[in-house]
Write a structure and sequence with these properties.
338 residues; five-stranded parallel β-sheet; glyoxylate reductase (NADP(+)); alpha/beta; elongated; six-stranded parallel β-sheet; 36% helix; EC 1.1.1.79; oxidoreductase
Amino acid sequence: MGVSNTDSDKTQEEEQQDLPKVVLFRPPPAFSLIGEESFASNKFQFLKTYDSQLPLDQYLPTHSHSIKAILSSAGAPVNADILQLLPEVGLVVTTSAGLNHVDIPECRRRGIKIANAGHVYSDDVADLAVGLLIDVLRKVSASDRYVRQGLWADKGNYPHGSKLGGKRTGIVGLGNIGYEVAKRLEAFGCAVSYNSRKKKPYVSYPFYHNVCELAANCDALIICCGLSDETRHMINKPVLSALGKEGFIVNIGRGDIIDEKEMVSCLMRGEIAGAGLDVFENEPNVRKEFFAMDNVVLSPHRAVFTPESLKDLSQLVVGNLEAFLSNKPLLSEYVDNK
């Protein structure tokens, strides 16, 4: 005797309910950009806390036995309070390369593995970093506005920009992204130097232990490091002063790495020459002082968002989750002090 469609559908639904759960505290941006279906798998099921009206301390305990992993994006902290409610969790997967929203020591204490976005974003972020630098040096966005406003005909030629080739460029954070930035700048004929947690044996670029010293020996400073207690406001008044009135700064790391108030003051007083910024201290609320500055190029934290990188991200996220649930090596496991 045949099985009815209703019975078949019910069986499939029950099978879905039996799958291990991956909890989400907010929808990752990639869900809306390339579709949640890109992250689907027959090995796990997403459990979305944001679909429930219950507070987390009531909602999570009712599902904690089946929640084996967390899919986290920036803005949804994974801290000790959350992990305490999820005793079966063995993996945190993030859609970002940075991990400042994850309590790494607490994960280590609990034996929870961490997988981040790895190299997925490196090329796209490096492209934008160099693009921002070229834009602010050559005044691309500012001269575009000049033409659109009809000022070329009324006021004549726009002030000339500055050449990229030959510039002394300092990279703060020579990780995956920083290294890709360095390779691109080398191709433009720039002299590259860097500051990082430790000297990298695989590069011959000059290494500076001190960010101030790096800034003093650069025409442009590009911020590529992650945010931590040590790097918060690392780019402060002394660093900006060392960069000097002919110096430019580009930030594709995190907004809080720069003391934004001091940077605004330096820009307004002409103590640095310009800035290209993809990240800000209080996103999406950007300081209004920037809006009137033709020597500042602004981007709404979009360095990582291309269709190509998001497709790669979905494959990496699913691959990490399936590997973990199959007791196989993770594809992009985060290792401390790598």
